[in-house]
Sequence to fold (244 residues):
Amino acid sequence: MSGADGPAALLGDAHLREADPETAAFVRFLDNLPRGIGTLAILGDLFSAWIGRPDLLRPHHAEVIEALRRLRRRGCRLLYVEGNHDFFLRRTYAPDPFDRCDEKSVDLVLAGRRAHLAHGDLVNRHDHQYRAWRAISKNRLAFGAFNLIPLRQRNRLVDDLERGMAKTNLKARGGFPVAECLAYARPRVRLGTEVLVFGHFHEERRIAIEEGDRKGTVYVLPAWRAGHRYLLLDPGAEPAFVSA
Fold:
């Protein structure tokens, strides 16, 4: 089967760090991904911070990127949607190692289903503080100014960013915004989307939605590093969360 029609694995929020034992575990997962899976979609925050600049590449980044390349060389299609810990990845990492890298979301056919994939950080329309931070941190002019700073200072800023975001994430994970999720999903289901998949919230969830004669399902991915679980979409079965 082609990548669009064959089985797909979706995961998010590994938040890999330097000197992190989870990095080796993730590499083993990539190297041992079942060969029947034709697409791997990572819905953001693969690393605790990832900036699309080759001069900011660190050893744990390089180790995982090389494993992704091995997986792609064997014929697996790789998709990435940026999360709130990712910044300007497309120019550096698409089409290598990712066949496709999107900043906000992507609509496509996956495992024979019409799917909408997003990190999930834009689901909550009422999180004005985060949306303001996102607008600033993902502004291309600000990124251009950042790149003019000497490398040593940029690396220190990245370290500060990682520490700061780790604290703010605890607050963000205080509760799942059910009403906002439904408001985000319903119009898409109405237009024919069958499966919506989010990361970001670190909670494994399945929410069935009916809009007239249309039916869809929202799947919220668990944090990969918490239990090495991912969502398997198989054209011959119901989507299911499985352990690596």
Q: What stands out?
A: Helices lie at 21-31, 59-73, 90-93, 128-137, 140-146, 151-172, 178-190, 224-227.
